Amino acid sequence: MAEPRRPDAGSPRAAPARRTGAARGPEQAARAALRSLEGLIDHPAEGVSAVRRSDDGWCVVVDVLEVPRIPDTTSLLASYEVQLDRAGELLEYRRVRRYRRGTADE
Fold it and tell me: Of the ranges 16-25, 47-56, 57-66, which one carries the lowest mean pLDDT score?
């Protein structure tokens, strides 16, 4: 899939330059949280289940596969709350929930 063409830099409609790594929106915050958490806990991320702006940056909930099992529905997953500053740098993280893949919230 081809990337959309960007207007010429001299054009008045040119997009503003963004700092690399800056979490300027929820998508960038989610990606930064995934990268940071996977690097620290050495478990693969399954996805992001929540993103919200906080007073000093972003709070992202990342779901992680902690214990893979067969069958897959018995694997243990965990939800981690990841706090990022406005630049997308990790401030802190903590595990807030651990659950089996096949279970639903009550």
Answer: 16-25
